[in-house]
Amino acid sequence: MKEVTPHQMEELWEEDLLKRYPENGKPEKAKEEFRNYEDPQRETVKEFYRINHLNQTYDFVLGKEKEFLKFDKKEMTLWEAVEFLNTLVDDSDPDTDLDQTQHLLQTSEAIRADGHPDWFVLTGFLHDLGKVLCLFGEPQWCVVGDTFPVGCQHSDKIVYPEFFKENPDSKDPRFNTKYGVYEPNCGLDNVHMSWGHDEYIYQIMKDYLPEEGLAMLRYHSFYAQHRENAYAHLMNKDDHQLFKWVDKFNPYDLYSKAAVPPNVKELRPYYEDLASKFLPDTLKF
Ligand SMILES: [Fe+2]
Ligand SMILES: [Fe+2]
Questions:
Q1: Which tens digit of pLDDT belongs to each residue from 64-105?
Q2: Distance between CA atoms of 269 and 98, rounded to whole angstroms?
Q3: What is the CA radius of gyration of the chain?
Q4: Residue 24 burial (CB < 10 Å; 0-12/13-18/19+)?
Q5: Quick one: pLDDT band at residue 24, thresholds 50, 70, 90?
Q6: How far is the CA of 144 from the centre of ligand 1 (A)?
Q7: Which listed ligand is nearest to 218 at the C-alpha?
Q8: Relative to the alpha carbon of 196, which ligand is closest?
Q9: Which residues form the signal peptide (predicted)?
Q10: How far is the CA of 147 from the centre of ligand 2 (A)?
Q11: Quick one: which ligand is closest to 255's CA?
Q12: Band of residue 256 on the pLDDT scale cut at 50, 70, 90
């Protein structure tokens, strides 16, 4: 794979999401058509998903959970974490690309401007903080990208489903049936999701935000459900309620584009205040 930095990979992933799920509309080209056309950026995204789908097995995810949910990597205040994440900025174009803090603020400020409750604003501000995984040396394919359940059959509604053929779980009878290791409508709380920044930040915030906010954190990249409804057979009633909030959140993540980039310095006190209402003084990563 052509070497791309974590930040470039994210930009490519986001551009790809916008092509798949454009604002107020249909994809510009029919799915097949635009998947077949040669484009070096698409090739990079495709290769990214090949590696992702190949490696995100049930055992891999359990291993990552064991490794990272000890939260023994780093202890930071919210703002230290925000600044730490911002060190991910590399050779992106400063004129057109937002840095990490600006993406968080753009999302949360759009939520605030629409008059949503403060926990929703805070959730918007926190939603990508799990990308600090990149700074702990984790490869891009297990930090960003669409997420999906592991331990059961992969839906063909997941982006590039053909790459799951190479995933050992798809040949393992424990994991390759509709329900796999799960029970019908067992609830997503009982389901392991592919490892990435969503699961990580959800687990960090688990004790501090209302469950609607936690659902936004955990499922914001789970496009196969919130856009394609491919996993309703694992969801319970509560999940369906919570996904109304996930749906509410997604456009702010994907489409909010402020005319003027948010002013980080001016906004900092508001967010530190908000954090002190919900979060402890330091967060364990
Ligand atoms: Fe994200
Ligand atoms: Fe985001």
A1: 999 999 999 999 999 999 999 998 865 555 556 788 999 999
A2: 20
A3: 18
A4: exposed
A5: confident
A6: 7
A7: 1
A8: 1
A9: none
A10: 13
A11: 2
A12: confident
